Amino acid sequence: MHVDSDGTTDWLRSAAVSARAASVALARMPEAARNDALRAAARALRARAAEIVQANAADLVAFDAAGGTAAFRDRLALTPARVDAMAQGLDDIAALPDPLARTLADWTRPNGLRIRRIAAPIGVIGMIYESRPNVGADAAGLCLKAGNAVILRGGSDSFHSARSIHAAVTEGLCAAGAPEAAVQVPPSTDRAYVAAMLGAAGLIDLIIPRGGKSLVRRVQAEAQVPVLAHAEGLCHTYVHAQADPDMARRIAANAKMRRPGVCGATETLLIDAAVAPALLPLIVADLRALGCDFRADARARAIVADLRAAGDADFDTEWLDAILSVAVVDGVDSAIAHILRHGSEHTDAIVTEDEAAAMQFLRGIDSAVGIWNASTQFCDGGEFGFGAEIGIATGRIHARGPVGLEQLTTFRYVVTGNGQVRP
Amino acid sequence: MHVDSDGTTDWLRSAAVSARAASVALARMPEAARNDALRAAARALRARAAEIVQANAADLVAFDAAGGTAAFRDRLALTPARVDAMAQGLDDIAALPDPLARTLADWTRPNGLRIRRIAAPIGVIGMIYESRPNVGADAAGLCLKAGNAVILRGGSDSFHSARSIHAAVTEGLCAAGAPEAAVQVPPSTDRAYVAAMLGAAGLIDLIIPRGGKSLVRRVQAEAQVPVLAHAEGLCHTYVHAQADPDMARRIAANAKMRRPGVCGATETLLIDAAVAPALLPLIVADLRALGCDFRADARARAIVADLRAAGDADFDTEWLDAILSVAVVDGVDSAIAHILRHGSEHTDAIVTEDEAAAMQFLRGIDSAVGIWNASTQFCDGGEFGFGAEIGIATGRIHARGPVGLEQLTTFRYVVTGNGQVRP
Question: Known Pfam families for this protein (chains A, B) (predicted)?
C-alpha cells in the first residue's frame, strides 16, 4: 500500500488493524452474544429512525440539486418503514443458524492425530457498494453473524445516511458488549478510501463490491485483495425436445419476465429444432403478452416471421430488460456449446422430461447453478434457503452462486495429538 | 490484459482459451479415464527418461556457466531415479480418490426444489514456480486429477527440463485420449509470460506461486487473478504450565530441528513462567545438542544466562534455520496475544495436559492449523492424508493450510425441480 500525505491510508491501516482485533473478539463470542449484538443493533436502528431519515434527507437534497433520476432517488430514499425493514433484517439474521458452529470434516490419521476442519471467520471484509443505504446494514449484519469485521464504503450519494446508520448500529453493538471497531465507515466520501481499500493486501481479507458493472470491473481490475465479485448473469433456458410444453411455457415466461432486471433472469432462450415449430410461437405469444421483445436467429425467424433479427453480439448481451434473445439448437450438445461460448457461468436451465438429457446438460455446462425443470430466477440466496444473501458470486474461487452466511466464513484446522512428533 | 507487440499476450490468450476447453473436456471424462491419462503420462516420463536427463544437462551447463550455488544445482539436477520418482508421483495421484466425486451438500426446499452442491474443477490454473523441475510434473498431475487445465511457468534455469517433461506428459495424455491443451508451457523464458499470466483476469482462474518469498510477493502484488499463495510460516510452540515435561521436550526438538527449513518448523518457543525454570534448561540442552542457536527474551535469559538476547524483530523473523526465538509468557492469554501479534496465521501448537487450556488456546489463535500436543511439522499435505500437496496456503480465502486435490476444486449447484416458477 503506498503512503499518501492526506491520511487516507493511515486511516485505513488503523481501521483495518482495529477491525482485525474486533474480528478475533467476535469469533470468540458465543453465538448467543453475537445474536444479542445484532438484536441490539436492530433496536438502535428503530430508536434512531427519525434521526436516520433526517440524515437521509440531507443526502436527498444534495441528490436533487445534482439532478439525479427518479429511479436512483427511490433507491436512495429512506422512510421510517424502510429503516424498520433494515432493523428487521438484522433480527432475521440473528435468528439464522450459526455459520461458525460447523465441523466440515473430521478424521484420524494412522498415527493417532485427529484432524478437524472447522468453520472460521474470514476476518476483515471490505464492502464497496452504491446507492441503497440498506446494503450497509444488511452487510454489517451478515458479516458480524459470521464473526467478521467489516469496513463499509457506500456511495457518495448516501454518505450522511450511511454515517447515521453506522452510528446506530455501533451504538447497539457497544451496548451489547460487541467491539466498536467491528463495523467502520471512512470519514469522508473521498474516493481515495476506495483505492486504499483495494490496495490493503494483508489488512483486508476480502473485498465484496456490490453495484453496477463499472464498479465491479474497477474493483476487480485494481484490487490487490481477493474479490468476491458479482459480475454478469447471462443466463439461458434451454427447451429440450422432450420438454413438457406447458411447463416450458410457464418456465420461459417466469425466467424472463418475473423480474427482467435481476441477474438470474434468462437472457437467451434456446429451443430445440424438434419442438420449435410447435412450441416457439406459443412461448413468443406468452412473452409478448407480458411485454417482452425478441432478438432471434434466422431459424427462429423462419418459424415466427416477425421476430426482430439478432446480431451475434445480442447473444453476448445481458439485457436486464424485457428483451429475450432466441436461438434454435440441435440437441443437448448444441445447447451446451452455445452456453459455453456465450454464457457467463452464472445460471442455466434445461426443461425436459428426459433425465438422461438433463444429466448430460447439467454435466456439460460449467455454470455456478445448473437447473433442471425450474426457473433460472431461483438463483437467489433466499430461494436457496440461505436466509439472507450479500450477492451472487460469479468467480470460481471460494464461493459461487448466492453468497450467504456460510460463504462469509473460511475454515481452519484443529489437530489433536498425544505427543506425536514427525518422523 | 494489455496488448503487446511481441505476441506474449496473444500466446497466453490462445493458451488459456484452449486450456479452458481442455478443462471442460477433462471434467466430463470419467474418473477412470482421467487416471488412465495420468498413468500414461507416467509411462511416457519413464520412456523418455534419458531424453529428459539430457535436456536437464543443457540447463545444468547454463547454470554452471552462470556460477550458481551447489544447493540450487542439486534442486535443478535430474537423474533417471528422479525422473522415475516424478512418474511414480503421477501413478500415486492416479490412485487417490476422485476429488470431483463429492456431493458437498444436498437439501430440498419447501417448494420441492432439490439443491445439490457438488465438487467441480476450478478451470484454468496458472502455476508459477522456481527451480525444481519436478514441481511441474507434480502440479500437472494434481491439476489434471481435479479436472483442471494448467499453464506451467517454471524458472528460467529449468526451461529445457520443463519443456522436455511437458513433451513427455503431453504425449502420455494424448495417447490416453486426454486433451493436449490440458498442460501448457510458454514457448520461451521471457518474463513477459509471467506478467501476462498475472494479468489474465477471466482467462486464468487461479494462480499458484511456488517458490521463495520474493516470487510470492511479486505475484500477490501484481496479480489481477486470484492467488493461492504460500507466504510465511512463523510458527509457535507454546509449552503450557500443565505440559508433560518429556512430551514438551520431544515436541520442541522435533518442531524446530526435524527440518528447520520447512514452513511448518517452529520459529518461536513460548514457555509458561510456571514451568520455565525447571523445563527451559532441559529444552535448551536438547536443542543445543541438535545444533540449535537461540534468541531469547530477558525472562528466558534470567533462567538460562548464556542465551543470546533477542531483539523485538527476532520474534517477527521466520528463521528457516537452526535458530529458535524464546519468550517466557504468563498463561494462555499471554501466549495467544504473542501469537496474534507476531505470528503468520500458519501453524501454532500448545503442549498441555489441561484440555480447557488447550481449547482456550485453539479458539483464541487465528491460525490455519492449531495443534494440541504434537509437532508443528505435521502441517503437511502428506501428513494430513491428502496424498499429495501443491503447497501450503496462507491466505484466508478458498483454502487454508495444505493444498491437496480437494483444494484444487470448487463447487457448483445442481437444482432439480418439476416445473417450479418463482412467485
Answer: Aldedh (PF00171)
Contacts of B368 in chain A (CB under 8 A): 412-413
Q: What is the pLDDT of residue B70?
A: 86
The residue written with cell numbers 495421484 in the block is B93
| pLDDT tens digits for range B348-360 | 999 999 999 999 9
Low-confidence ranges of chain A (pLDDT < 50): 1-3
Separation between Cα atoms, residue B38 and residue A93, nearest integer Å: 47
Q: State the CATH architecture for A8-231+403-415.
A: 3-Layer(aba) Sandwich (3.40)
**In a mutagenesis test of the B interface, which of A262, A389, A421 is the best target, namely the one with the most B β-carbons within 10 Å?**
A421
C-alpha span between A211 and A220 (Å, rounded): 13
A235-378: CATH number: 3.40.309.10
CB contact under 8 A, A251 and B419: yes
Could you report the per-residue pLDDT of B182-236, keeping only the tens digit for each?
A: 999 999 989 999 999 999 988 999 999 988 888 888 898 888 888 998 878 999 9
Q: Which of A397, A417, A419 is opposite residue B226, by nearest beta carbon? A: A397
A320 and A294 Cβ atoms separated by less than 8 Å:
no
Given B244, B415, B421, which is nearest A254 (Cβ)? B421
User: Chain A: residue nearest B351 by CA?
Assistant: A419
Contact B420 A220 (CB under 8 A): no
Same fold, A8-231+403-415 and A235-378: no
- 8 Å CB contact of A221 and B224: yes
Instruction: Please name the member of B122, B364, B372 whose beta carbon is closest to the beta carbon of A416.
Output: B372
| Total CB pairs under 8 A between chain A and B | 201
CB contact under 8 A, A384 and B258: no
Nearest Cα neighbor of A346 from A379, A302, A300, A386 is: A379
> How many angstroms separate the CA of residue B77 from the nearest CA in chain A?
26
Would you call A149 helix, strand, or coil by DSSP? strand
Contact B421 A375 (CB under 8 A): yes
B52 to chain A, closest Cα gap in Å:
32
Give yes or no for a contact between B252 and B280, defined as CB atoms under 8 angstroms apart: no
Each domain of chain A, given as residue ranges in start order, spans 8-231+403-415, 235-378
- pLDDT, one tens digit per residue, over A55-106 is 999 999 999 999 888 888 998 999 999 999 999 999 999 999 999 999 999 9
Residue B395 to residue A226, Cβ atoms within 8 A: yes
